[in-house]
Amino acid sequence: MSRDGLRDGGAVQRRKAAPILIGRLPHFLKLFTADAAHASLITHTSQLAMRQVAFVVFIIYTLCTPVITRSRPPNLISQRVLNDGEVEKRIYRDGTFALETSVPGPGSTSQLRLWQVSNGRQFIQTILDSRGKIVDCEFSSDKLEIEEFISTFDGVVTRARVLAEDGTILELERGMNWTIRLTPVDDNNDVVDGDLLLDVKTLRAECKQKHVTVKARMAKFKKGMRNKRDVFIYPGTNWCGVGATTERYNELGFNAAADRCCRQHDFCSHIIEGFSSKYNIFNYRLHTISHCDCDER
C-alpha cells in the first residue's frame, strides 16, 4: 500500500457520516498498529500524524453530539416472550422509546399492560386493565430515570443495527421467542394502540386527568363519611355526640359552652363513646360518657 493510497483512504473515511466513522474506528486502529511487514511501507511520522487526526475527529464528534442523536437506531419493533408468560414489545420511532409489557391476568382473556415511554425529556408509566382503561400512572422528568429506561434498549438497538447494515428485514433469534424487525416510520401494527403508546403528550395529559379524577373521588368519599358522622353530633357543636366533626382541639361549634364541656369529656382518659362498650359497660346514649372525676371538673 502506497503513502498516496493511505491519504486517499483517510480522506474517504473522513467524508463519511459520523456514525460510520465510529463504526470504522477499529479499522483505523488496525492501520495504526500494523505489523513490521506494513511498517516498512509507512514512515513513523505519517503513522503518528494519522493517529492524531483520527483521535481529534473522534473526540470532537463525541463531545459535540448528544448521546441520543449519536446512538439513534433505525425505527424498529421488537417482541420477546418471557418464560413466565409476559410479553415485551419494544418500539423505537424517531427519538421515542416505548415498552409495552403484557402480564396474563387470572382469566383466560384478561391481562394487565404496563406502558413505559420516553422521548428523552419525559418518562411516563401507565398501567391499563384488559379494557384499556388506565388503572394507575405516573410521569417524571428525572434524567437518571430516563437514561436507565433508555439503556434497557441497548440489546435491541445492537441487533437492529445489524439488520440495518445488512440491508435486510429479517427476524432474529426466532428460537428464543425474540423477534426484531425494522419498520417504516408509521408502522405500529404489532402493538395494540401503538400510535397512542408513542404519543408522550397525550399520555401525560391522560395521566394528569386520572390524578384529578382520583382526588375528586377521594374528596367525595371523605365528605360522605363526614356527613354520616354529622348525623350523630348535636347541632351547634363539634364534640357533643358520637365522635367529633373536627380533628383540631381549638375548633368549637357556635354553642361553645356545651361544646367545651363535651370536648373535656372526650379528652378524659376514661371514657365510653356512644353506642359502644368498654370496661364491661355498654353506653346506649348518643353522647360519650366519662368517669366521674372528669364530670366533676
Automatic annotation (TrEMBL):
Its cofactor is Ca(2+). It is found in: Secreted. Coiled coil: none annotated. The keyword Lipid metabolism applies. One of its GO terms (molecular function) is phospholipase A2 activity. Its main location: secreted. Signal peptide: none annotated. One of its GO terms (cellular component) is extracellular region. It comes from the Eukaryota. PROSITE patterns: PA2_HIS (PS00118). Keywords: Lipid degradation, Lipid metabolism, Secreted. InterPro entries: PLA2-like_dom, PLA2_histidine, PLipase_A2_dom_sf. One of its GO terms (biological process) is phospholipid metabolic process. The keyword Lipid metabolism applies. SUPFAM superfamilies: Phospholipase A2, PLA2. Residues 233-297 form the Phospholipase A2-like central domain. This is Phospholipase A2-like central domain-containing protein.
